[in-house]
Design a protein that fits this description.
Layout (H helix, E strand, L loop, with lengths): L9 E11 L5 E5 L7 E8 L2 E10 L7 E6 L2 E11 L1
Antiparallel strand pairs: 1-4, 1-6, 2-3, 2-5, 3-4, 5-6
Length: 84
């Protein structure tokens, strides 16, 4: 499909099979190994968590890893289940 770039951005990301290692409200989120981290809010869910990014991310797809950081420490991780 062809469309405007801003329509491809995703700010809400549902993560399944996820685990939060410590309670977090805010974290830096990496959706790709070599991508820069993006700040966002994290909400715990029954089977994972939901990420609400401060700025949209592009190219987010189900099956990708989502890794949460506080500084250099990993505080959560899981697989992207949905993005909107």
């Amino acid at each position: 499909m062809v469309g405007r770039r801003e329509r491809l951005g995703r700010s809400r990301i549902g993560v399944r099979s996820g685990q939060l290692f410590v309670p977090v409200g805010r974290a830096e989120v990496k959706l790709r190994y070599r991508s820069p981290a993006s700040p966002g809010s994290v909400e715990s869910r029954a089977r994972g968590f939901r990420i609400l990014l401060d700025a949209p991310a592009y190219g987010v797809a189900p099956g990708q890893a989502a890794v949460l950081y506080e500084g250099d420490a990993v505080v959560g991780a899981g697989l992207v289940a949905s993005a909107s």
